[in-house]
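Question thread 4412

I'm putting together a teaching handout and wanted feedback from people who do this every day. The idea is simple: show students a protein as raw sequence, then show them the C-alpha cells that encode its fold, then repeat with a second protein so they can compare. Below is the first pair exactly as I plan to print it.
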Amino acid sequence: MIYNSPMLRLLDEHGAVAVYGLPYLEPDAVRAVLPADPGGSPQEPRGHAGVLGRAMACVRADLATRHARSVVLAHAWVSGGQVSDSERDITVGGVGAVGASLFDGIDYTALGHLHGAQVLRPGLRYSGSPLAYSFSEAGHTKGSWLVELDAGGLGAVVQVPSPPTRRLSALCGTLEALLLSPTFAEEQDDWLSVVLTELLQNAVDHGFPEGSGGGEVQVGLSHRDQHLTIRVVDNGRGVDPAFDIDQATGLGLSIVRTLVTTELNGTIDIRPATSDDLRGAGLGDGAGHQHGTVIELLVPTDD
C-alpha cells in the first residue's frame, strides 16, 4: 500500500508540499512487491541501497507529475552518519548503508534509524531519538528539527531540544571516591554508568607499594554456565595467606563485598597466586617461587 499511495499532499501559502513516507525496506521482504523501475531497467534491485533506490525512483517519478515542494521521511542508515550502540544493526559488511546522493533533489529528507541528531547536509538530517537508549548516547542533545519550507524549498531549520530529563553520565573511579568525593557532586542525580576501579586499585596499591619496582596486572572476564567470572591477577608482593575478606575494614572492599554477596548473590575470593595462576595469566613461566594475588568474583546471570 505504501507504493500505491505514497504521497501526502499539504498546502500552505506557497502552494503544495508532497510528503513521502518510506519505512525500513528489508530487501528480501520487499523486492518482489516493488513496482517496476520508472526508468525501464529490468534488473531486480539488490541490497538495501537497491530497494531504497527503487523506492526513491518511484518518488521522483510521482513528484515529476506534480508542481510541489518535496519532503521524504526515510528509515535508513546513510553513509557518514555516526552510530550508537543501541541501534539495531541493519548492515552486513556495510551493505546496509546507502549513499546520501540517493536523496538528491528532495527539498528536505527527515531520516530515522540513528539515535543522534545529525546534519549530513542542510536538507538531509537525523532528528535522533527523543530519549537516550544507551550510555553511548550520554553526550547527545535530544530534540527535533523544526523545518520551514518557503516558496523556493528549504528555508530555516532550528533544533528544538526535548524537555529536560535525567542526564546520563559515565564515571570511573574507586567506590569510595564516587560516593564521597565532591568531584562527582554534579552527577548525583544522573543515571550513571560506573566503572569501578576498586579491584584494580587494590591490586596496584597492595601489590606494588612505593619502591617495589612495579609489575603487571591481568584482568580476565568469562561467561559460562550462567555465571560471570571476573579474575584479577597480579605478580606483586602477594596477599597475606591469612587474609580474610570478610574481615576487611576498608570502605571500598567492604562495599564491593556487600554488593557482590548480598545484592548480586555472588562470591568474592582474594588469595595468594600460585605459579599456575601466574603462568595462566601470562605473568610468569611457573618456574620457582613467585608472588602475586588473585581476586576472583563469581556472579550468577540469567542467560
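The second pair follows. I'd like the answer to focus on this one:
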Amino acid sequence: MVIQTNDNKFSATTWIVDPSAGKGTHTTIQAAINTAQSKDVIVIHPGKYSENITLKAGVSIIGLADNLSFNNEDSSVNLAGSITANYTGQATVERIHISTDTANCFVINGANNTFLKVIRCEAQSSASSLLIANSTGNSIIQIEDSSLRPQNTTAVPFAISGNSQVFVTRSRITPPSVIPIASTISSGSIDISYSECNIPFTTSGTGSITATHSLFSFGSTQFVINGTTASVFFMSQISNTGNTPLLTVGTGATATLRVVNLLGNANPLVSGAGTCTYDLVTSGTGIGTISATTSTGFVQRSGGISFDGGTTYLRNYQEGTWMPVVTFGGTSTGITYGTQSGSYTRIGNIFFYAIDIQLSSKGTATGNMTVSTPTGFNYLNAPEGASVTSWSNFSLDSNVISLGGTFLPIDIGIGLYHLYNGGSPQQLDNTNFNNNSRFRIVSHIFLSS
C-alpha cells in the first residue's frame, strides 16, 4: 500500500508499517525508512516493533496511536529498541513509545548537521541512557510534549557533548522509582522550558544549562555547574528533599538565577567557589543562604529580603501616602487647605515621612494643634522629635527662635511646638495659626515592629 499525493516529481509518499503482513507496505520500521525518500511520511500502526532504527533526512515517522501507554500494545506504537540519527537535514519522530533494555533510546552522533524533532513520544531505558548526543556537527535535538523516564541507576539519562544542542519543551523527565546519576553536559547545551524535571545535571568544559518556566525536584544536589559557559535559570523552581545544596557553582563557573524559587533544607542552598548572580530569588520559609564565592543580587522569602545571599534580611519595606489632617483641640471644624499631602517610606523598622500643609482657612476649632499620621503602624517609641524644615505665616511671640514637632503617643499625631530663647517649648494652638499658615515636616521615627 503506497499513497502518492500527486504525480509530479516533487510528490511525497506515505508508507504504512504494520506488524502483520499484508496490512501495510512494510512490517518493520527500518524497512520503510530504507525505502522512503526525503519528504516521505511513514505511518506506523499500533503494535510492538523489536528493532533498532537509523533515521533518514527528510523522513517523518508518525505513530498511529489511540493513546500513550507503554502497557497497551494494541493501541499504541511500541519500539523495543533504539533510534540513531547521524544524517544531514531534519527528521521527525512522533507518537512513538521507545523502550530498551540493552541500548540508548536516542543516539545522535557523527559529524553531520543533524536536526531531530521528537514530538509526543515516551522513552524509557532500563539499561542505558535516554539520550546520547555527541555529534561533532551542529546538531539540534528538539523534544516537545514528551515523557522521558530513566530507569537505570548507573547510566546517565542525558550525555551531551560535541556541538549538540538539546531543547526540551512542555515535557516531563521523571524516573518512576530509581534515582539516576547526574546527566552530563561537557560541551554543547541543554535548554529546558515549561517542563518538569526530576533528574540532576552536571556541566563541565563549555557545557551549559538554560532553564525557563520549569520545575526541578530531586533528592540531593540538583545542579553542579562547572562549565565555563554560564548557565541560566529563569522563572523556575528548584527543590530537593535532602540536606545538600540545590546548586553548586564550581571555580570559574557562573550561574544566573532570575525570578527563581529555591526550596530545600540545606544551608547554603547555593554553594561553591564560582559566581552566582541572582535577582528576585525566593526561598520559601527556609533558612538557606546563597554563598557562592562571588554572589550579587537579593533573596526574598517570607521573612524578608536579603541582599547578601541570605545572611541578613530586610523584613519590611513599604511606601505610601496619606492625607494629613490638622486639628485644634481634637476637631477640625472649618479647616480648609491649599496644600495637603503626606508620604512615607518604611525600611525595616525605620519610618521616614514628609508632611506639607498650606491652610486656606484655619476654621473655628480651638485648642492645641496636632496633624495626623498614617494609621496601621506601631509608633510605640513616641513621643519622639519631628523636624519642621520650613514654616511661614504664623502668629508667634518675638522671642520664638524656631518651630519643632513631637511625635505624640500612638494615634494622636504630631504636635507643633515653638521654642523660646532660653525657655521651654510650648505646643502651638489655634491662636498661633492664620488662614494662610504653612509648614513642612521631613523626619523619621523608629517603629516597635
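Top answer:
Good format. For the second protein you could add a caption like this: Helices lie at 29-35. DSSP finds one helix and 44 strands in the chain.
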